[in-house]
Hints:
Layout: E1 5-11, H1 29-34, H2 37-48, H3 52-55, E2 68-76, E3 83-91, E4 94-95, E5 100-105, E6 111-119, H4 132-143, E7 155-161, E8 166-177, E9 196-202, E10 208-213, E11 220-228, E12 234-242, E13 247-249, E14 251-252, E15 257-261, E16 277-278, E17 280-281, H5 288-306, E18 320-324, E19 337-342, E20 347-354, E21 357-360, H6 365-379, H7 387-406, E22 418-419, E23 431-432, H8 456-459, H9 464-475, E24 478-479, E25 482-483, H10 487-501, H11 508-522, H12 529-541
Parallel strand pairs: 15-18, 18-20
Antiparallel strand pairs: 1-6, 2-3, 3-4, 3-5, 5-6, 7-8, 8-9, 9-10, 11-12, 12-13, 13-17, 14-15, 15-16, 19-20, 20-21, 22-23, 24-25
Helix pairs in contact: 5-6, 6-7, 7-9, 7-10, 9-12, 10-11, 11-12
Amino acid sequence: xxxxxxxxxxxxxxxGAGTVLESIGxxxxxxxxxxxxxxxxxxxxxxxxxxxxxxxxxxxxVGGSHAEFKSVGIDKIPFTGNSVVKFRQYxxxxxxxxxxxxxxxxxxxxxxxxxxxxxxxxxxxxxxxxSPAKALQVVAKWAGYERGVPGQPARLNFYFDAEHSRWRLVxxxxxxxxxxxxxxxQPAAPTGVPEFSDFVVDAHTGEKVAxxxxxxxxxxxxxxxxxxxxxxxxxTFFVATDSSTNESxxxxxxxxxxxxxxxxxxxxxxxxxLPGKYVGNPPSPWDxxxxxxxxxxxxxxDFLKTVLMRNGLDGMGGKIVSSVNCTWxxxxxxxxxxxxxxxxxxxxxxxxxxxxxxxxxxxxxEVVAHELLHGLTDHTxxxxxxxxxxxxxxxxxxxxxxxxxxxxxxxxxxxxxEIGEDLxxxxxxxxxxxxxxxxxxxxxxxxxxxxxxxxxHGGVHINSGIHNKAAHNIIVTKQDGQFLFNAVEVARVFYxxxxxxxxxxxxxxxxxxxxxxxxxxxxxxxANKDAKIAAVDAGFAAVGIVDAVA
Length: 550
């Protein structure tokens, strides 16, 4: 029972004829079609907990309060025509942190699948003794503010404290930027990034329960332009040009991409000045690092739109903002800041010397895609950035980054599985999805490294290699000498899993269950359906991500 949760996943394709779940809604198919998806899904959820499959995970009453399920949204899956209704679990009108129930419906509101992760916060007083204002004072001092945390609410949740194996009533304050580092000493190498966290405070005692990292480390007309990027490659992109002055800036109105120059200022000490001025022309030529950031962002937005059928990171065409030429206090040598980071509202890119010249960290397409697509995770599953959930967060960005970088190559056998090899003169990558051990990552659960939170947030960049290897196994699966999947198919399997099947506290096993659910739905009418589902199962099994044997 990971992080205090009970989990179960059932898909209609797994059910035999005549089972209770298989017939959910069958007697009322006509009336179900007339319901809105939320009401139909709620009926299915209530029916599910009364079945043998659902009884094992049905939440019990807590202190006389029944579990309630409130809808948190409906996702339409464009690849299948199905809808996924998401519910959060509540007791005493307080949400259970990390809880998630997803009910997948056909176009006629008939049952397709259900995935549950629910908790039972027993023996916890549901009435807070601490006021929200007092909780914010605790967080302000914790994060290094003198006059309170600006503009952030404190929200009550039931929260499972894994360290002490017990439930608590807490306040959670999200996306707070630290004004002082979370660790006493800065590393010697220039690897620091801005720190944003969710802070968890006990609502009875004011005790500091947990800090959950949120920073993932990496009159005009629209005119087509061409220029060389950081690697000297010609790139084509769109800019905004003032027809009266013939001055241009890196703003793509169609994709809502904005690229700025922070002019080697300190993004930590001058955070309020971000994102800086738009990168402009004249002067000519275009800044090559800015070209990389702008053109690579274009590739990511186009991937979201054409492959995942999603309008930007937030699904609503929101801004994609980047600042190049950034430095960071305490982590900069000269003009070198060897890092990139995604802040809550934008990307910042540092640079390093390669052959005597500064090369932007925006040079690498897979790195830009990786960092930007942390934003997709933040807008959907919002996986915690610590321990196994954090490693899963990192892995999903790696998976999408590799797919974005290789999708123009139809032959998967020719794909480059390295991440970040363009960022230094040696050509040595940061990670290799085909062989994680090459860069000191484990490739099997037998080698999972139990690290403290002070060590890479519990190994988020280390243990991600296990899930990466599972994804690699799936993607390269062959049948009769031919690759079983194409880039679009694998991207959609993992996208459906991330956006519809995972919650904040999900781990590798949750991803396996979710990927199988997604594959069953995505390939329901595929001639190779059974082989593809088996390949997903085998890919995870090969790295030891399997259900425990009872």
